[in-house]
Structure formats: structure tokens, C-alpha cells
Amino acid sequence: MITDTLKVFVTVAEQRNFSQAAKLLNLSQPGVSLHIRNLENEFGTKLMHRSPKLVKLTEAGEILFGKAQQILAMYDEAKQDIYMLRDEVTGSLSMGASFTIGEYILPRVLAEYAQQYPLVDVQVHISNSDNILQDVRAGRFHIGLVEGKVDAKDLQVTPFMKDEMVLVASPDHLLASGKSVDVSQLQGHVWVMRETGSGTRAYSDRLIQDSGLSVKRSFVFNSSQSVKEAVTWGLGIALLSRWVVCKELESGELCEIPIRGMKISRDLSLLQSKDEPAVMAVLKFIQTLNQNVQ
């Protein structure tokens, strides 16, 4: 179909590289080159300037690039509308999720979604909240799922649930009596934290700064799972989502340290572009997400 050739052309134009486009399209490089030659023969003009390092569009190529993007978008929209007549949801769904959401909340939601809509190709990338925000801005994902306060007036930000943050320690820690403590009793302790840019790290930093706490020493890990394991082994105390530690709190591997007069919670939010209309696969996922977090 002509749409296949246009997709190849658009991908090469976006990547500015034949080899990279071939990888993304799962085609051979000669196959990609053949698509481009066929287009140039059809239009009777050169569409791209090729060099070993870079591909640059000609004036005619720039015109076709814009029109091809519109054609492909309209084709996908028509395909979705036709599948809706048959009550089928298909296509692709790409999303980015923060570690807490991606590792502890999303799997349950995706299990139900995949059962209801088996024809949708789902791709999930897990990273910290700042990275996910930038990737949604750049159009790399249909949606992003992030933690905490989001400063993104250029995106549609929709909170979908509240998440409680709890301070935890190993059962042998001197604060692990099960009784609540004054925030001043957290002075001079060892903390285990997520990396800068993490939604979880932002709340640890805020608690320490707002309470004027001194930190004896800190250890930094780039996943909540690693933080949890470090705390379990007695490395220090940590502020984590209750989702992350609920099993360990129930089993007694970790102890919660309630802070008197303080309850810490945050929004978990869905990020979307304001400009791109949501395809049916995305709309159905959002519906499934909301049904599972009520």
C-alpha cells in the first residue's frame, strides 16, 4: 500500500538516517532505499539529499513530508473508526510510567486491558517522573503516568489517584517501635533515597528541608525496589509509597514510622498532549485505568 511507502519516507525524514529508520521499521536498508527511490520515480523529482552521516530533505521532500504526516494520521483515524464499527480496538499504545506506577500499579491495570483489547500492541517504558514528562513533551509516548506535582502547562495533566507516602525502617532500627515519633526525632539519621528527578525523591527532599532535618549520611538508588531492599537490610530510613512497601509491612520485613501530626500524600497523574487527539486504544486504556483505581 502507498501508506507503507509513506511511512518509510516519514521515518527516514524524522530519523535523518536510513540505517536507523530501517531498524525502527524492521526492514533492510536496501528495502528502505527502494521505497524512497519508488517515491522519487513516482513524483519525478529528488526528495532527499543523502550523505553517509545525514539525510536532508529537498524542497519537494519538505512538502511531501508535511502532507505524508497528514495522510498517515487520517489513515490511522479511518482505521480506528472502521474497527469501532466492529467493536474492535486495535493499533498501538505507547506509554511512559514512573517506577512506582510502572512496577506496582500498572501491571494490574494492563492485565485487564490486555484481556479486553488483545489486538492492541502495548509498549511501556519505565523511568523517573522527570524523564517521562520530557518524553511526553517530545511526542515519544501517547501518555505518561507520573508521581507528585507536575509543572507542565503545555500538557494535559489529569490526577487519577492519591498515593500515601510512608516513612519506613528495618525492624531493628531504633525508630521502629511502632509508635509515632516527633519529626525532630528524625534528626541525624541515615537516609536511603531515590535519584534526583524522581517523584519519590522530591517528597523526601521536601520533608527533610521543611522540617529542618540534618542527614547523617544518604545512599541514593535509581529504583524504589532498590531503596526498599536497602532499608530492609538496615541501611537507613526511607520515605516510599505505601504501594511499594505494603507487602513488607504486612510480613514484618519493614516497619512504618508514623510522624506525629503529619500525613504525606501526592497525586498520581496522567499526562497527554493537548494537540494530538487521543486514539481509541488510548481512550480505552484511560477508561480501564480509572476503573481500577477507584
From TrEMBL:
- Lineage: superkingdom: Bacteria
Query: What are the protein's UniProt keywords?
Result: DNA-binding, Transcription, Transcription regulation
The entry's family comment says:
Belongs to the LysR transcriptional regulatory family.
Tell me, what's a Pfam family for it?
HTH_1
- Know the name of this protein? LysR family transcriptional regulator
Q: List the GO molecular function terms.
A: DNA-binding transcription factor activity; transcription cis-regulatory region binding
The protein's matches in CDD domains, at most eight in alphabetical order, are given as:
PBP2_CysL_like
Domain named HTH lysR-type: residues: 1-58
Q: Which PANTHER family match?
A: HTH-TYPE TRANSCRIPTIONAL REGULATOR, HTH-TYPE TRANSCRIPTIONAL REGULATOR CYSL
